[in-house]
């Protein structure tokens, strides 16, 4: 038996001007995961 799960989530992340360049930030998956998973 094949069982498949799919999930998706839309996320809006505030990136302050002068902060880390967005291209650099997006190349770091662990930072993205933390930003998405942080509910606090």
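Q: What amino acid sequence fits the structure above?
A:
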């Amino acid at each position: 038996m094949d069982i498949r799960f799919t999930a998706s989530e839309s996320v809006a992340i505030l990136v302050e001007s002068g902060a880390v360049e967005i291209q650099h930030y997006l190349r770091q998956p662990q930072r993205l995961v933390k930003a998405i998973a942080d509910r606090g």
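Q: And what stands out in the fold?
A: The mean pLDDT is 78.
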